[in-house]
Amino acid sequence: MVNFTLTALLIMLFSIVSIAAPLKVGLVLDKGGKDDKSFNSAAYLGAKKAEKDLKIDLKYVEATDTNAIENLHRAFARKNFDLIIGIGFAQKDAVKKIAAQFPKVKFAIVDGEVDAANVRSLLFEEHEGSFLVGALAAMASKTNSVGFVGGMDIPLIRRFAMGYAAGAKHINPKIKITENYIGVTGEAWNNPAKAKELALAQYSAGSDVIFVAAGASNSGVFDAAEEKKKFAIGVDSNQNWMKPGIILTSMLKAVDVAVFDTIKETQEGKFTGGISRFGLANKGVDYTLDQHNEKLITADMKKKVEDLKKKIIAGQIQVPDYYKKK
């Protein structure tokens, strides 16, 4: 009887300890790092919010070398992390490989699609949000000429550019759009000097609003806009605060929300693999309006862009998608 009681007590104590053990989450950021004030920063903030609110055990690493990504994921998996989150399309192959090797570990990847039962792919409808900021750019332009500076020349960033151009042309079919890319390697995400050079050239050629989607390189475009007293448009996070009066708006991707919700659902035992999509309809993308740019967007501009948003959600406006380009 005593042995049975002790055994039962030990089982109960073990169960309590097991239940109390915090969820172990590993976050693998890409080259921009947690301080890029853009994509990675948003993911980091979402994970830190989960650490505070959900009491998870969070560890993060920054992949300064793309070749190291696979080993970073494997290291977390070998340490029995419950959930490993990769940030950026460049982590797709690594997540696919390591998820197959560790089927009991749960994975998530932002901006990459991996078909596996233990992987959740967090995908955003960037073209929808880009359409809205393109419309705002056209409304704000006094020269009928706007620009786009992309980071790495890849389909994802071309998707931003196509949506932006469509939004601008929806407002002004005759508007001129100049499009440049910083590079063809991952270094493009962290080269503000090159971004500034491209932006200065666009402003000098007549553009008076430039949308930039280039990670940590965005700051170069913002500096050029300030120097030339023109407008810039941020991306991923709300970057309006970085240059109040200069940044017209930001194309928001709710990466922080996607990361937080994935962690929360994992903790609650509700994790599922497959694709989770975030667009205008579920507030996964949007344009930003706050105290830093409210004087730049008139009531008429806001009314028009909100109307466009409703029409896109209702399917009355079909935003062209680079991924579906024939």
From TrEMBL:
Gene3D superfamilies: 3.40.50.2300
The UniProt record lists the keyword tRNA-binding: no
Subcellular location: Cell membrane
Stretches of the chain forming a coiled coil according to its record: none
Record-linked Pfam families: Bmp
Matching InterPro entries: BMP_lipoprotein, Peripla_BP_I, PnrA-like
Membrane topology according to the record: Lipid-anchor
Annotated ranges, domain ABC transporter substrate-binding protein PnrA-like: 26-321
Alphabetized UniProt keyword annotations: Cell membrane, Lipoprotein, Membrane, Signal
Entry-linked PANTHER family: ABC TRANSPORTER GUANOSINE-BINDING PROTEIN NUPN, TRANSCRIPTIONAL ACTIVATOR PROTEIN MED
Family: Belongs to the BMP lipoprotein family.
The protein's name: BMP family ABC transporter substrate-binding protein
